[in-house]
């Protein structure tokens, strides 16, 4: 994700790693028909720690990066990462709400 201007910075509004919408990122062989969302606080903290205040940020949507050590988020479910963020002008004058999926 990135902000449209080099003078903007990312402010994370919300995150979700799991499956809320059964029609997004459907996999032909891994189960995609179960809703599942776990470790919301952990995921939000990880994404904010990586991206907050940056102009651009790239995040891998996987358990190794997002889950608590030694755990698996929503095992046996094909997951996607949903990040909602704002691009905020350094002067705090303008912002744009962007919604990222898959």
SSE order and pairing:
Blueprint lengths: L7 E12 L16 E2 L2 H12 L11 H4 L13 E10 L5 E6 L2
Antiparallel strand pairs: 1-2, 1-3, 3-4
Tell me about this structure.
This protein is an alpha+beta fold and 102 residues long. It has one domain: Rhamnose-binding lectin domain (RBL) (Jelly Rolls), CATH 2.60.120.740. The protein contains two helices and four strands, in the order ββααββ. It has helices spanning 40-51, 63-66; strands at residues 8-19, 36-37, 80-89, 95-100. Strands 2-1-3-4 form a four-stranded antiparallel sheet. β3 and β4 (95-100) form a beta hairpin. The longest helix has 12 residues, at 40-51. The radius of gyration is 15 Å and the shape is elongated. The mean pLDDT is 87.
CATH class: Mainly Beta
The share of residues in helices is 10-25%
Outline: elongated
Average pLDDT rating: 87
> What is the strand tally?
4
Which structural class is indicated by helix and strand composition? alpha+beta
> What is the N-to-C succession of helices and strands?
EEHHEE
Strand content: 25-35%
Short description:
The protein has 102 residues and is of the alpha+beta class. It has helices spanning 40-51, 63-66; strands spanning 8-19, 36-37, 80-89, 95-100.
What are the key terms here?
single chain; alpha+beta; Jelly Rolls; 4-stranded antiparallel sheet
């Amino acid at each position: 994700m990135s902000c449209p201007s080099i003078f903007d910075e990312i402010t994370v509004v919300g995150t979700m790693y799991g499956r809320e919408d059964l029609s997004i990122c459907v996999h032909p062989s891994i189960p995609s028909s179960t809703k599942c969302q776990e470790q919301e606080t952990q995921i939000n903290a990880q994404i904010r720690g990586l991206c907050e205040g940056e102009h651009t940020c790239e995040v891998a949507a996987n358990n190794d990066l997002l889950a608590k050590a030694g755990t698996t988020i929503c095992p046996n479910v094909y997951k996607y990462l949903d990040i909602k963020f704002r691009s905020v002008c350094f002067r705090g004058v303008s912002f744009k709400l962007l919604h990222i999926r898959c």
